[in-house]
Amino acid sequence: LHGAQALRNRAFRRQLQKFPHHFLHATLRGRGLGEAVYYFDTDKNGVVQTVFTAWTVGPGFAGLSGGCHGGGIAALLDDAFGALTNTHLRSIGRSGEAVTAFLKVNKMV
What we know:
single chain
């Protein structure tokens, strides 16, 4: 497979029925935040090495300045880091979930 078709075959979309109270995937969905699509790249042994996360962000996700809300940026980063960490751990046979202990996002001007 090549190009866009290969990417579509590696795409993952979170099932909303499994996470009805998830902050990003349920609560904010349709309130300025669209669906997330995850693309996972693995090495020759099937170990997840890279995750690309694409979100659709609309005007309802804006902060006071009109740009993306800072708390929203932090939540999106946390979700992307979690997607990489948890899928990587599962791909090497380690179960359990990793959680964010600390995440700081400085205001960008």
